[in-house]
Amino acid sequence: GDETSTSASGSAQEPAAPGAGSVKQQISNLVALSLRATVPEVDVEPIVEVCTGKFGDYQCNNAMGLWSKVKGSGTSFKNPNAIGQAIAKNLPACDVIESASVAGPGFVNIVLSKSWVAKRIQDMLVNGITTWAPILPVKRVVLDFSSPNIAKEMHVGHLRSTIIGDTLARMFEFSNVEVLRRNHVGDWGTQFGMLIEFLFEKFPNWEELGSQAIGDLQVFYKASKQRFDEDAEFKDRAQQAVVRLQGGEEKYRAAWKKICEISRNEFDQVYKLLDVQLEEKGESFYNPYIPQVLEKLSSQGLIEESEGARVIFIQGHQIPLIVVKRDGGFNYASTDLAALWYRLNVEKAEWIIYVTDVGQQQHFDMFFKAARMAGWLPDPKEKKFPKTSHVGFGLVLGADGKRFRTRSTEVVRLGDLLDEAKSRSKSELLQRLTENGKIVDWTDEELEQTSKAVGYGAVKYADLKNNRLTNYTFSFDQMLSDKGNTAVYLQYAHARICSIIRKSNMDVEELKVSGNISLAHPDERVLGLYLIRYAEIVEEACTNLLPSVLCEYLYNLSEMFTRFYTNCQVVGSPEEPSRLLLCEATAVVMRQCFQLLGITPVYKL
Ligand code: ARG
């Protein structure tokens, strides 16, 4: 039929306000209406993608799949192309779509209306970038990231987890999803026995001591480990200390708390430098829940005895998941099961996301499967919530191709790393400003803030821009270069746009309300279209848990801006008001990308 139906029955998606959600989402909504009118007998989800060719901006790829469903069923359609024609014809009349044409076996190429694109940009400039938030199908997410281990090294892997996790959190938060940022610190394990005993031995007055007195916890850890390995009597005491701690004995709890506190102070310094918010709910938090959770799993017949341990056998895995060790103690897996139970049932999260190195993939794979066997999670093929995801990432390598380490220490001191990035970016900035005779325009405070933003941003971006699963080589020279796909290059690109706006004699704030964006030049249109893709990029980065998608967008955007700026005169041209608004919109979107990547944008460089 060619009548346009508007009844939205059978749609799983909640009806959103008109104009809300990403452009892709809005096109999909229009296509959904057309599909319902075109093939009312088939229930099908719209397939909408960005066009790869030049015949449209977005394309609908439903026709071929529909053809295989309806052919031979007495349909009046002769071929997929005819279905495509009908889909194009049945698109509801609206101000979004300029035209639609059909290519080959029914691809519907959709051209967006220039004035609609312009209006969407202008609305964003007036009402803020939050109006470009995508609509995600979840309301509450638990994001388990960073999660270092108390008294052990916080290594580069934890830095990656912190940076990737924070970006994911920011992207979800921007999309109006509530994020429970969880630091699942390793604060509960047998290592505490030796740490506590060592504390008693070395600092008899430990109760009165501040955290400074105990000094570096990693050194403390090493010393106590040495003591543990060398002295059987100490080892004995340490093992008893674990029992007494877990039995809740006051003195042992107090000592444990003290050690955790020292570690926490060290971690917090790093989080402060990185501007990362986290709420600590460590392994110990879930400990009281373990017995009841295992009890439930046991009553479902999932837990078996194996070689003195209690285990869950999981299909596709040779080795079972151990949930109670031979000595009766709980472990990483039992803690994670209890934590998942808590996150699902108490915190009522719909999506639980874990950010760790890929080395832990098997662990996550196994306990996710155990949770599915217990009926906590639906079959992943059904694409339903609640769901769990492991966000794995690769190694950080040094110039020698081996695991990244700094010269002096075995582990990388994160604070030192960030410091070095800052001082390197500062000396480069100083050199450039001196050469250009611009050093006089800068205060010390400005210099300091800018080098910090550029340096820290470079470290974060160098990590985030890669597909997280690949290993990457840590190189200050590369990440601090002002050429290529680096944060420094992007900071310059952004600052340049800000300077164009400053140099114009027009008032952008005033223009936002009174001016008009026109996208007459092809490069203006390309830039405008790319700007309004912002929401669907964030949507994709969230859906696939890939910060690199946002980095790629940011980089492409700056390239498109350069093309526009090269081919379209801004200052002093008749189009200046409209083009300044495009500059401003680009700067706003770039800043928002920086913001989601945890990078502080600079306005002057
Ligand atoms: N503490 C662990 C480590 O350093 C990471 C914890 C990740 N979170 C979890 N729920 N298992 O490897």
Automatic annotation (TrEMBL):
Catalytic reactions on record: tRNA(Arg) + L-arginine + ATP = L-arginyl-tRNA(Arg) + AMP + diphosphate
Keyword Signal: no
GO MF annotations, alphabetized: arginine-tRNA ligase activity; ATP binding
Transmembrane region(s): none
Domain Arginyl tRNA synthetase N-terminal: 25-112
CDD domains attached to this UniProt entry: Anticodon_Ia_Arg (cd07956), ArgRS_core (cd00671)
Keywords: Acetylation, Aminoacyl-tRNA synthetase, ATP-binding, Ligase, Nucleotide-binding, Protein biosynthesis
SUPFAM superfamilies, per the entry: Anticodon-binding domain of a subclass of class I aminoacyl-tRNA synthetases, Arginyl-tRNA synthetase (ArgRS), N-terminal 'additional' domain, Nucleotidylyl transferase
Ranges of Polar residues composition bias in the record: 1-12
Domain DALR anticodon binding span(s) in chain numbering: 490-605
SMART domains linked to this entry: Arg_tRNA_synt_N (SM01016), DALR_1 (SM00836)
GO cellular component, one term: cytoplasm
Top-rank taxon: Eukaryota
Pfam family, one: Arg_tRNA_synt_N
Region Disordered, residue ranges: 1-20
EC number: 6.1.1.19
Biological processes annotated in GO: arginyl-tRNA aminoacylation; post-embryonic development; reproductive structure development
InterPro entries in the record: aa-tRNA-synth_I_CS, Arg-tRNA-ligase, Arg-tRNA-synth_N, Arg-tRNA-synth_N_sf, ArgRS_core, DALR_anticod-bd, Rossmann-like_a/b/a_fold, tRNAsynth_Ia_anticodon-bd
NCBIfam families with a match to the protein in the record: argS
Function, as annotated: Forms part of a macromolecular complex that catalyzes the attachment of specific amino acids to cognate tRNAs during protein synthesis.
HAMAP family the UniProt entry points to: Arg_tRNA_synth (MF_00123)
Family that this chain belongs to: Belongs to the class-I aminoacyl-tRNA synthetase family.
Record's protein name: arginine--tRNA ligase
